[in-house]
TrEMBL record:
The keyword Repeat applies. The lineage of its organism: Eukaryota, Fungi, Dikarya, Ascomycota, Pezizomycotina. This is Nephrocystin 3-like N-terminal domain-containing protein. It holds the Pfam family NPHP3_N. PANTHER family: AMELOGENIN, NACHT DOMAIN-CONTAINING PROTEIN. Residues 157-233 form the Nephrocystin 3-like N-terminal domain. InterPro entries: NPHP3-like_N, P-loop_NTPase. Keywords: Repeat.
Length: 234
């Protein structure tokens, strides 16, 4: 009787263990379903802010895709265990938190953006690299009338290398001021010279161009501030 009783207990234990395993699998699959819903919600939030183009948006999309694939592999695994979900849940929590933070950042960027914001810099013609090299070379044949003006661009490199105030360039309409500024803003030597005083601090270069032919906001101080803030924060 003792042996028979022990066999019965083992049978009951095995049956109970099987039921627990089945319930555990159901719970894990339910967790996976919830995780999938959260991942889909996150994707919807990211799509909402895709018009605010930034490297952070791309990073979050890549993290979302990677996590989604990881979850798909787990749900197909025949030996799915609770431990397998630990990493996924942790990554999902981080992604959700980062997405909420990004949504706040996106709302700020969207409030600063306006339709004509990126157009001005893009439509300014590019100068030939050799044509405007004199801007960095320490000399310029700007005007022989005064030594101060003829050495104007000789001081540009020194100005970029130090934490000084404004560098004022004037000229008649159509003389190429915007083309020159685009050349300087996009030139690698500008980054190198600015790096001498920025040191280990992040270096951000942005530009804004007033134009008499632009829209009211492009000609306004508001347009200047919104554009600079947008590009810096982006």
């Amino acid at each position: 009787m003792g042996v028979l009783s022990e066999v019965c207990k083992k049978s009951e234990i095995e049956a109970l263990r099987s039921r627990i395993t089945d319930h555990k699998s159901d719970i894990i699959l339910h967790i996976c379903d919830v995780a999938r819903e959260n991942i889909n919600d996150i994707y919807g939030q990211l799509r909402k802010w895709e018009e605010v183009q930034s490297s952070r948006h791309d990073e979050l999309l890549q993290a979302h895709t990677k996590l989604d694939r990881r979850l798909q592999l787990l749900t197909r695994s025949p030996n799915l265990a609770v431990q397998d979900l630990d990493g996924v849940c942790g990554a999902l929590s981080d992604l959700s938190l980062n997405t909420r933070q990004y949504a706040k950042e996106g709302a700020i960027l969207k409030s600063l953006s306006y339709k004509e914001l990126p157009l001005r810099h893009d439509i300014i013609p590019k100068a030939h690299k050799v044509t405007l090299n004199w801007a960095f070379d320490g000399y310029a044949d700007v005007s022989p009338e005064t030594s101060e003006r003829s050495n104007a661009f000789g001081n540009l490199s020194r100005w970029l290398s130090g934490p000084n105030g404004l560098f004022w360039i004037s000229g008649k309409p159509g003389s190429g001021k915007s083309t020159l500024m685009k050349f300087v803003a996009d030139n690698e030597r500008t980054k190198h010279l600015l790096g001498k005083w920025s040191g280990d601090q992040p270096l951000i270069i942005t530009a804004y161009y007033f134009t008499i032919y632009g829209t009211p906001i492009q000609r306004s101080l508001e347009g200047l501030l919104r554009s600079l803030l947008y590009k810096i924060l982006q």
